[in-house]
Write a structure and sequence with these properties.
Layout (H helix, E strand, L loop, with lengths): L5 E4 L7 H9 L3 E4 L3 E5 L12 E4 L2 H7 L11 E4 L2 H9 L13 H5 L11 E7 L5 H8 L3 E12 L4 H10 L4 E3 L3 H10 L3 H8 L2 E4 L2 H10 L3 E4 L5 H9 L1
Parallel strand pairs: 1-2, 1-8, 4-5, 4-6, 6-7, 8-9, 9-10
Antiparallel strand pairs: 3-7
Length: 240
Amino acid sequence: MKADLRLLNTRPEHQSKKLTELVESIGGSIFNLPLFEIQPLQFEKPNLSSFNYLIFLSANAVNAFFSGDSEINIKGEVIAIGSATQRALKNKNIQNVICPMHFSSEGILSIPALQNIDQKTILIVCGENSKSLLPTTFTARGAQIKIMICYRRILVSHDMEIIFPQLVVNAINTVVATSFESLSQLVALFHAPKHNQWLMQKKLCVVNEKMKMEAIHMGFQSVMQSKDATDESILAAIQY
């Protein structure tokens, strides 16, 4: 176990509390540098009982979609893209949530129940700029698709002349990025040569194989992959 863990966490502020507590519980320290904030969008919620399948593509999608709901009436199958999303649904008292073996759009497409879906109705709940793979493939399989975009990511600005000295003083040795967007923004923020050189020498934890390959391509020298995007899995990956 890394007794000297000093972590730079790039998750949105409202999602950083649990990981902070976990890292501090093992004697580590954490520096929270949120790269995005989540902004809920206005939308008209459809009749949920009219769908055969409801697919949620992130925990943020779950929380934004069900914000303020006291009663949730769902008759169809509920599918979460990963365990963090599944947990968010369970926190809304939605049980029997299906989760793919691989936490990705491709994983969802491989779920047996979604192979023969001609004339089935599917609601996809997501954020802005989500990938088109799911609706395109489901439409090709004969399903009727409705996409509900319920939040967007807003860039958080940081002054590196202020932030970077703090990172150096805190002797950060590990960085966490949990999405392609956060990984890209992280590299963009550290674009200055001295900042980029510092960043590439840190251990980086990402949450899937595609992110790992992209991080290596970007120049990160030490990249580890957690089992999924939950705080517990991230902690398990960065401890050893």
